[in-house]
Amino acid sequence: SSHFGSSHPSSRLEQRTCGQRDREANVSDTDEYETALVEHATATTSLGICPMCVPTGSVGVVQCFGKFEGYVEPGLTCFCPPFSSIMNVSLAVQQTVGSTECKTKDNVTLTVCTAVQYRINKKMVKQAVFEIVNPDAQIHAHIDDVLRSTLPSMDLDAAYEAKEKVTRSMIQAVKAAMEPHGYEIINILLTDLRPERSVLDAMNAINASRRQREAAIEQGEAQKVLMVKAAEADAEAKFLAGQGIARMRKAVADGFRDSMQSMSQGGLSPQDAMH
Fold this sequence. Notes:
Blueprint: H1 2-5, H2 9-46, E1 50-54, E2 58-64, E3 67-72, E4 75-79, E5 84-90, E6 94-103, E7 109-120, H3 125-130, H4 135-150, H5 156-161, H6 163-178, E8 183-195, H7 197-265, H8 270-274
Antiparallel strand pairs: 1-4, 2-3, 2-5, 6-7, 7-8
Helix pairs in contact: 4-6
């Protein structure tokens, strides 16, 4: 009975060892659970909802996993990074300026300066954002094509006179090329036609000579008028002088006649009256 009633020392040692292992396993499980909670909280924080404001005059282009999902109007909106993103796209009228060098029919090198006013069509914002990388370069390429096919058929003076015709051609060509991609062309302005400096100086010299010739013609006409008027005045003066001399002679003759008559009446003969 004493053998079965008392515990063996080795069995008690084994019981203590098993209990210690259970406690260590419980501690390990608790640490792993806390670590999992921290990782979950970190992931939840990084994948949370992010607010964003879209300014007036713009729209927010929404992408989810890189795919276009639509756009949002101006105001407060939210998205969930990194799965989705919102990009602000301005709908305001923008302007791009450029210059094109070409030759006219009379071999004058001409620099044409243009200004294009355009904006994005909101209904076609997908095409405007994702189909064209550099819209300014596309617009100026079409303008260069129109100018270099139109101006070489005109001389320099005709190019200055055909400004409106060239502008209409540019608007028509650029609209046809850019509107299918979501860009609305408001207007194209031909702001300057600038030939080479030497040609410009020659044109100024020609204009100056033409104006000097016109001035000389006008000056000659003025001198002619002055001379005619002077001749007319001289003739009128001589006519009046002749009339004066004739009247004077008539008056002298009338005086002689009256004197002769008076002497004859006094008894003198004409011969005596003459002496």
